[in-house]
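Researcher: Structure prediction, please.
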Amino acid sequence: MEMERKILAVQEAERRRIARDIHDGPAQSLAAVLLQLNFLTAEPITNNTEELRQELLRLKGIAQDSMNEMRQILFDLKPVRQNNDSLLSVLEDYFAEIKAKYNFCIELNSRGVPQIYPPYIQTALFRLVQESVNNCRKHAGVNKVHIMLAENREQIEILIEDAGKGFDKTGELNKADNFGIAGMLERTALLGGTIEIESKPGAGTQILIIIPLNGEVL
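Model: Predicted structure follows.
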């Protein structure tokens, strides 16, 4: 029962995060487009065709940005590959996709023998890294992040570091609507692990995730 409760809590945090991303991004942008289109169609069409053209181009740009945001949300929701591949292999493929899609570089180093984990562990670990990378790409103001993956049969350590803008850790952790960090904390707790987040404005961010494995390696 306790495990089911924790899983439901993680799922609810993930749903809230997705809802927030849609509300704050494409939903608001499309609402702005609709509002402006209502205005344009409620008034007589201007005789200044160039002015009208520029306004339509602006609205087209907003709609395109909204489409790109929706594609990003769908990209993030893509199921984690479970083809008897190691976590290292899955992450390498994901990072290659990120670099090709956003020109965002992820320097990945690893220690130990690459391991294959049960699906629920592999998925949770992947989502933790995914959320960290997305936070860095969207908010840190840099185009590179460094990740160290250290694996053995007793535990896994994941260190994510960037030299970006950083943030006020206390303030962010206390935000009621910070579903991204809340989801990371809940995923880590679900796996019986620990997560340490160190950051301050202007000094980058460091996230250390340690998960005990208790022999749960395929």
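Model: The helical segments are 2-42, 49-76, 87-102, 119-140, 169-173, 179-190.
Researcher: Thanks, that helps.
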